[in-house]
Amino acid sequence: MPGPDESPEEPVADVAIPHFPLKLVSRRMLAPAVGHYTLVRDDGQPLDFIPGQFIQVHFTYADGTATKRSYSLATIHDHAMGPGEAVEIAVSYVPGGAATALFEGLDVGDTVDASGPFGRFCLLPGDDNARYLLIATGTGVTPYRAMLPQLDAAIRERGIKVVLLFGARTPDELLYGDEFRAFADRHPSNFRFMPCFSRELPAAGSAHAHADVRHGYVQQHLAEIEPDAGADIAYLCGNPDMVDACFEALKDGGLEIKRIRREKYVSSK
């Protein structure tokens, strides 16, 4: 699982990038140590983005040193975001984390300093694949939530197949699991949702107990979905060890590097 204050790897440079205020609208707990935050841009400008991109939140440590964290946008939308439309992120909490203290201390109406969107971890218009393999751990699943409208369109228009292989420690930590399960129920022939629990399986009869639940780590079950070099494009997001292991397995299985798209979540306090 990704570690403290997990976030996508940050851009190498931060040169002349405009900042803007994001105001907290609401928050709720997704898991015992993950909050779901809904925010709006508070300067009257729109915050449009491509599903798969992330924003950066800028703040200072206690000694005044400037720092920042990156958060993938989890917002489900299928249109341009106009002024005042909300965006959503998932924030991991860890005791002693500077970003954790920032977000836990926010009240509704408070603002944070942000920039973006950034990133190229996106579905591409020219994709000609027959199937997407979406693989994630922890909050690395948030970009896939934002992609659901695009995946729905690709299923309708191209008959695309999708497998979401998602690793969590326990059922309580299966972020957005109900939404992915509902999407799979709407597309039973095209979308397969495979949660992998490394520590604790769901109780029999619970909402998370179904035939595609697996025990262990996602990389242990990658072979089961039979990656196909001629048909698949794979996305890997989350824990760096998982991303590296799956990347090597997919590459060894014949997938071209350009058809394996990666975003590692790094830890920092």
Short description:
With 269 residues, the protein is an alpha/beta fold. The chain is built from four helices and 13 strands.
Q: What would your notes on this structure say?
A:
With 269 residues, this protein is α/β, with parallel strands linked by helices. The chain is built from four helices and 13 strands. The chain has a seven-stranded mixed beta sheet, sandwiched between helices. A six-stranded antiparallel beta sheet has the order 5-4-7-2-3-6, with helices on one face. Strand 9, helix 3 and strand 10 (191-197) form a beta-alpha-beta unit. The radius of gyration is 18 Å and the shape is globular. Mean pLDDT is 90; it is low at 1-6.
Which strand order spans the largest sheet, edge to edge or round the barrel? Answer: 1-13-12-8-9-10-11
Task: Please bin the fraction of helical residues.
Answer: 10-25%
Oligomer: single chain
Number of strands: 13
- H/E element order: EEEEEEHEEHEHEEEHE
Low-confidence stretches: 1-6
User: How much of the residues is beta strand, in percent?
Assistant: 25-35%
What is the rounded Rg?
18 Å
* Main beta-sheet strand count, sense and barrel state: 7 strands, mixed
Q: What class, by secondary structure content?
A: alpha/beta
Sum up the overall morphology in one term.
globular
Number of helices: 4
The chain-level mean pLDDT equals 90
How far is it from the N-terminal to the C-terminal residue, by CA? Answer: 16 Å
